[in-house]
Amino acid sequence: MKNSWIKIKLALQTPFQKIRNRFLAAMILLAVPPLFILGYISFDISKETLMATNTQNNQDQLRTSSEVADLLYRNILNMNESIVLNNGVRDSLRNARDVASSDRYTIRDEIVRQLQRMMNSNFISSRYVDSVCLIDLEFEPYCLGRSDNLGIYEQKDKRAIIEQTKWYKDVVKAQGKVRFLPDNVFGDSAKTFSTLKLFRNSDDLNGAPTGILVVNVSRAIFSAIFADNRAGGGEFIALDASEGDIRVIHPPGSAEVAKSLTGKLPDIYKRLEDQGFLIVNYKNETTGWMFLNVIQAKELLKESTKIGTATAVIASFIAAIAIIFSFFISGSITQPLLKLKKMMIDWTKGRRDFAEPFGQDEVGVIGETFKRMASENEELNERLIHTELKEREAELRALQAQIKPHFLYNTLDSIYWMATLKNNHEVAQMAISLSESFKLSLNKGNEMIPVYKELKHIEHYLTIQNIRYNNRFEYIQDVDSAIMGMEMLKLIIQPLVENAIYHGLEPKVGAGKIMLHGKVKDGWITFVVEDDGVGIADMAAIEQGFGLRNVKERLKMYYGDSSTFRITSEVGGGTRVEFRFYFQPKEVNDHA
Question: Which terminus of the chain faces fewer neighbouring Cβ atoms within 10 Å, N or C?
Answer without folding.
Answer: C
